[in-house]
Write a structure and sequence with these properties.
- It contains 4 helices and 3 strands.
- A 3-stranded mixed beta sheet has the order 1-2-3.
- It holds the Pfam family BolA.
- Belongs to the BolA/IbaG family.
- This is Transcriptional regulator, BolA protein family.
Length: about 90
């Protein structure tokens, strides 16, 4: 699984989401490219706790979280929070 596939899954699973996915560390030989980092911005996060936002991302990734992804570092924002963070 590559970063573009992870982005596609997140964006298709969360309404109006924009995902930017990267590889935060050098892949290790036991879990090649299985460590990902994602910044996800969506109005669907409005009124949700951080835990609920992260659960939405995990739900969008579905079975990939147990088969293709070893670790996922997440940062989630509403569009307003993301604009204020710049």
């Amino acid at each position: 699984m590559d970063t573009s596939e992870v982005e596609r899954l997140i964006e298709s699973g969360i309404e109006d989401a924009e995902a930017t996915v990267s590889l935060p560390r050098v892949p290790d030989e036991n879990h090649e490219d299985a460590h990902f980092a994602a910044v996800v911005v969506s109005p669907a996060f409005e009124g949700k706790s951080l835990v609920q936002q992260h659960q939405m991302v995990y739900d969008a990734l579905g079975e990939s979280m147990t088969t293709d992804i070893h670790a996922m570092e997440l940062k989630t924002y509403t569009p307003e929070e993301y604009d204020a963070a710049d």
